[in-house]
Design goal:
By secondary structure, this protein is α/β, with parallel strands linked by helices. 43% of the residues lie in helices and 14% in strands. It has 14 helices and 10 strands. It has helices spanning 4-9, 26-34, 49-62, 82-91, 105-113, 125-133, 157-167, 181-189, 199-202, 211-219, 242-254, 260-267, 271-275, 300-322; strands spanning 15-17, 39-42, 67-73, 96-101, 117-122, 138-142, 172-175, 195-197, 225-228, 236-239. It is globular. The two termini are 24 Å apart. The structure holds flavin mononucleotide. Flavin mononucleotide is lined by residues 18-21, 23, 42, 70, 72, 100, 121, 142, 145-148, 175-178, 196-200, 202, 285-288, 290. Flavin mononucleotide binds next to strand 3, strand 8 and helix 9.
C-alpha cells in the first residue's frame, strides 16, 4: 500500500508507533521499523542526552530502516535539556522527529537545517494548522479515544479526522483507538495517510515492558480507562487501577481547587515501576480505549502483517464489490 506517508518517510506500510514513555526503547522501535512500519524511540525516557545518543546507536545496530525519535513538550516540573536531546538526534543521524504536547516552533529551524522531517502530534484542528504554518511535514491527529494526552476538546476521530482533512494541506496520520485492518481502511477513507498506534504496540512480544503490563491491556475492556488531571488542563487517559481510582475520587472531591502537588504522588515517577517492574497499582499510566480491541500479544511483524492483510482484503473483497 502506497500513501503520502509511506512515500514521505520511506517506509513500507502506513503504520507508525507513537512515542511512549518507558515503552519506546530501541528494541520496540527497531521491531516496528523492521516489520515495515515507522518505529519511534522516546527521547525523554532517556535520563540524559548521552543516554539518548546510546539508545539511537543501539537502534541503528538493530535496524537499517528509518525510525523516529519522539520529543514530548509537556509542562514539567524540571524543564528537560531539549537542546541536548536535539543534538543527540542530529548527531545520531535520525531523520524523523515526532513532536507532541506544546508547539515545536522553537526547535523547527534547527530540525529543518539538518534535514529532519517533523510529524507533530496534536488533538485539534487549530493545533494542526499551527503545525502546518510553522513548517511541520505532517501531523498525527490524536482523537479523544487515545491513550495518553487527548487534549481538552474531547473530539473523537470520526469528527476530528474529516475536520482535519477539510482544513489541512499537509498529510496527516490518524491516531488514537487504532488496532485493526478495518480501522486502517476507515482512517484512509476519512482522509488520513496512515495510522499511529500506541497502546496496541505495548501488547507486542518485542515491547520491552513487564509481562503484567501487556496482560493488563489484554484483560482490559473499552470501559476500563479513566481521564485524570482534567481540572489541571493536562488531561491524561490512563488504565483504571487502585491508584487511579483513588486519584479520580480525590479529583471529584476537590474539583477546580486541586493542585498539582496533590496529584503528583499518583503520576510523577511511576512509569518505571509499572513498565519495568510490573507493579500495576503504584500509579497512573497511559492506555487507550482501544484496549477493548486487544486480545493477544503478537510480534510487531505478525501484528503489522495482519493489519495490512485485513485492510487489503476489505478493500479488494468487500469495498470494491460495493461499486456496481
Ligand atoms: C504507555 C503510553 C505512554 C505514552 N507516552 C507518550 C509520550 O511520552 N509522548 C507522547 O507524545 N505520546 C505518548 N503516548 C501517546 C502515544 O504516542 C499515542 O499518541 C497514543 O497512544 C495513541 O492512542 P492509542 O493508545 O489509542 O493507540 C503514550 C501512550 C501510551 C499508551
Amino acid at each position: 500500500m502506497k500513501t503520502k506517508f509511506t512515500e514521505m518517510f520511506g517506509v513500507e506500510h502506513p503504520i507508525m508507533q507513537g512515542g511512549m514513555h518507558y515503552v519506546g526503547f530501541a528494541e520496540l522501535a527497531a521491531a516496528v521499523s523492521n516489520a515495515g512500519g515507522l518505529g519511534t524511540i522516546t527521547a525523554l525516557t532517556q535520563r540524559t542526552p548521552d543516554d539518548l545518543a546510546k539508545e539511537i546507536e543501539k537502534c541503528h545496530q538493530l535496524t537499517d530502516k528509518p525510525f523516529a525519535v519522539n520529543v514530548t513538550i509537556l509542562p514539567m516540573v524540571n524543564t528537560p535539556d531539549y537542546p541536548g536531546y536535539l543534538k543527540a538526534i542530529i548527531e545520531g543521524g535520525v531523520k524523523i522527529v515526532e513532536t507532541a504536547g506544546r508547539s515545536p516552533e522553537k526547535f523547527m529551524d534547527t530540525l529543518k537545517e539538518h534535514g529532519i522531517k517533523v510529524i507533530h502530534k496534536c488533538t485539534s484542528v487549530r493545533h494542526a494548522l499551527k503545525a502546518q504554518k510553522i513548517g511541520c511535514d505532517a501531523v498525527s491527529a490524536d482523537g479523544f479515544e487515545c491513550g495518553g494526552h487527548p487534549g481538552e476538546d474531547d473530539i473523537p476521530n470520526f469528527i476530528l479526522l474529516p475536520r482535519v482533512l477539510e482544513e489541512l494541506e499537509i498529510p496527516f496520520l490518524a491516531s488514537g483507538g487504532f488496532a485493526t485492518g478495518s480501522q486502517l481502511v476507515a482512517a484512509l477513507s476519512l482522509g488520513a495517510e496512515g495510522i499511529n498506534m500506541g497502546t496496541r504496540f505495548v501488547a507486542t512480544k518485542e515491547a520491552p515492558v513487564h509481562q503484567n503490563v501487556k496482560q493488563a491491556i489484554v484483560n482490559a475492556s473499552e470501559l476500563d480507562t479513566r481521564l485524570i488531571m482534567r481540572d489541571l488542563k493536562n488531561t491524561e487517559r490512563v488504565l483504571s487501577n487502585k491508584a487511579v481510582d483513588e486519584l479520580v475520587t480525590l479529583e471529584a472531591k476537590k474539583g477546580k481547587d486541586i493542585s498539582f502537588d496533590e496529584v503528583a504522588p499518583y503520576v510523577v515517577g511511576k512509569y518505571k515501576d509499572v513498565m519495568m517492574n510490573g507493579k500495576m497499582d503504584v500509579g497512573a499510566w497511559s492506555c487507550g480505549m482501544v484496549a477493548g480491541l486487544i486480545n493477544d500479544i503478537p510480534t510487531c511483524k505478525e501484528l503489522i502483517d495482519r493489519i495490512m492483510l485485513d485492510a487489503n482484503t476489505i478493500i479488494s473483497n468487500r469495498l470494491s464489490k460495493l461499486i456496481t
